[in-house]
Amino acid sequence: MRKLTTNAPLVIGIIVAFLVANAIIIRKFHVTQDSVEQYAVGGRNLGWILVCFSYVGAWYVGAIYTGWVANAADLGIFVLYLGIYSIGGMITMYFMASNVWIWGKVYNLTSITDFIKLRYQSHLFSKFFSVVVVCVNFFWLIVEMITIGYCFQVATNSIIDFRVGTVIASAFVIAYSYLGGARATAIGNVVQGIMFAVVGTVVFFVIIYKTYGGPTPLFEMVQANMPEHLSLAGNQGLWMSSILTGIMGAYVWPQIFNRMFMSKGPSDTKKAVFVAPVLVVLVTCGILWSALGGNMLEGFPADHQQGLFWIANEYVGPVALALVAIFAISASMSTISAVSHSIGVMLGTEFVTRKSHDPMRRMKNQQYATLAVGVVAIIIATLNFPNLNNVALAMYEFIIQAFVPLFMGILWRRGNIYGAFIGMIAGVAIALIQFFVGQSGGSIVSWAGGFSAGCVGLLVNFVIYMVFALAVGKPAHADGMWESLKLYDEEGQYVSDGTEDKDAIAKYSM
Amino acid sequence: MTKKRKQLYIKWAIYFLAIIIYITGAAIQPIWDHIEPYVLGAPFSVFNIVLVQVLICLGLCLMFTTDRKLAKKEKEMRERGEKIDY
Q: According to the 3-state scheme, what is the secondary structure of A365-414?
């Protein structure tokens, strides 16, 4: 691997200081975990700043600093779809937040699969749903651990080996997720989010000015040398499907969906719209613009994933390199904590705890599941499988199939188990067939004008859901669920006036 | 969800849908394939993408402000013992 820095001890010192600061802050705000609600959703008591940065932290992956940067250097402005769909995801959150929070409170839901079980009253479907989202999410967990190791290796001239970096940083994150649950992941997300989103934005615009002389000279350079990088020609279908699937898929990720249960009320979740979208615009522009002209810089690394690290060191210095490494490590850490915790909560509830009625036992099971998921992921990450990044990206095609039963189930009471189950199986099957056919270069959706198999599957999924909803009608328990929405207001205050149909509300639970 | 909130959400959903159709549909317009004019120091394609992001940000903030006003009104109605339509 190419050596980037002239001052490796300084870079290592800055990274270590950052990790120590993380540990001190998370320890300072640690709260003893004494219930499932506390461990899984932070006691539904987190303020809006925590929820906001939790969203940013869980959403922004470390791979943006490596894989997406390489794509920005190779494909140009196409990669800016990332910013559009990240903000678009906030729109879906907004429409779901009130109902999800109130149902979470009334029916004591702690994960996305709890909601699915309640909404469709089927253990089989909730298990199928969990398997799909956990499998997809697990790939990203591994990718993020690999990214951390890669950042350590690149930033320290391989003094800290890829495997050592992966194990140390990932083990640290898994430890605080295991001990501190949702609250620790949220506190960690704030520290890491402020670092990579706020400090990072300033640093990346400094990098753009130092490297290219500012955004306008950068664009002029790209237009003069590689005008195709400012065009979407040839990628139109992919552009559309990437944005649409990204927006729809945003809140299907369990670690993102969980955030809606953690706030003090729906309003606190929604308040995030004042900060999170602005950070999203600044972060994506800062990072991806920095890499847009990379290919035109003399000495730009052949491995484009190193591009941002090289630019930082070459044009600003070793401190900037250390900061870029910290931003990437922060983004990875926040994703690892959110993903391992949410998978642990799901597995602990769905597959381990079903028969246990002891709340402490259930919480312990969720903790052990978090630990087990983290340890297995670390082991796989250190094996360094090739093409894992591409597989993880392909996983979007699967996870968006969960959007239909989730989003429609939240907003429309007519949706039922038949449409949800059959539709999702059809969507996943189409994505799966394409995944295998695609390995040999083939395509089953070549007729779709550039739209991906995931998009086609999503359409089929949606049509099936609608047909069954209209033909079979609403399930018996839906009215009770919707009746319960009258019990709490936007601030999360209990506002029952006693006229609600309490029997209907209590008749069904998960 | 109250009826008024539902109506508010539908209005904003149409706004956001229009923006998303614009930015996804804009991708197939010929302007993307030509040398582009500069707007505020950025090529039109880049400016377009940032503009859409800003419009979504503004939309979300305005939607939240209206939503808060509605929640306040509902709270006052509850305090006065008036019936809220769901």
A: HHHHHHHHHHHHHHHHHHHCCCCHHHHHHHCHHHHHHHHHHHHHHHHCCC
CB of A282 closer than 8 Å to CB of A215: no
> Alpha-carbon distance A459 to A202, whole Å?
41
Where helices occur in A65-122 by DSSP H, the ranges are 67-75, 81-107, 112-120
Do the domain assignments include residue A390? yes
Q: How many CB atoms are located within 10 Å of the residue A384 CB? A: 14
Summarised one tens digit per residue, pLDDT across range B6-39 is 899 999 999 999 999 998 887 666 555 566 677 8
Up-side HSE of residue A23: CA atoms within 13 Å toward CB?
13
Mutate to test the interface with A, among B7, B21, B22, B32 (most CBs of A within 10 A): B32
Tokens of B53: 């992001």
Give CA–CA dist A255/A261, Å, rounded.
11
- The CATH number given to whatever domain includes residue A240 is 1.20.1730.10
Q: Which of A215, A230, A271 sits opposite B45 (nearest CB)?
A: A230
Q: Is the interface score ipTM higher than 0.85?
A: yes
| CA proximity to A102, closest of A494, A506, A502, A510 | A494
Consecutive H or E run containing B42 = strand B42-43
Q: A422-460 burial, b if ≥16 CB within 10 A, otherwise e?
A: ebbbbbbebbeebbeebeeeeeebeeeebbbbbbbbbeb
Tell me whether residue A500 is in a domain. Answer: no
Check residue B34 and give its pLDDT: 62
Chain B segment 40-79 residues within 8 A of A by beta carbon are: 41-43, 45-46, 49-50, 52-54, 56-57, 60-61, 63-64, 67-68, 71, 74-75, 78
Are A102 and A266 in contact by the 8 Å Cβ rule? The answer is yes
User: Which residues of chain B have a CB within 8 Å of the CB of A233?
Assistant: 32-33
- What's the rounded Cα separation, in Å, for the pair A460 and A260? 28
Q: Which residues pair with residue B39 across a beta bridge?
A: B42
Q: How far apart are CA A334 and CA A193, in angstroms?
A: 8
CA-angle at A210, arms to A209 and A216, nearest 5°: 30
- A479 falls within a domain: no
pLDDT at A168: 94
Q: Which residue among B25, B49, B52 places its CB closest to the CB of A77?
A: B49
Cα separation of B32 and B35, whole Å?
8
Q: What is the pLDDT of residues A349-363, one digit of tens each?
A: 877 665 566 778 888
In the block, tokens 């669920």 appear at A481
Instruction: Give the chain B residue nearest A241 (alpha carbons).
Output: B24
Residue A91's SS3 state is helix
> How would DSSP label each residue in A7-30?
-HHHHHHHHHHHHHHHHHHHHHT-
Q: Is position A269 within any domain?
A: yes
Q: How many angstroms separate the most distant Cα atoms in chain A? A: 72
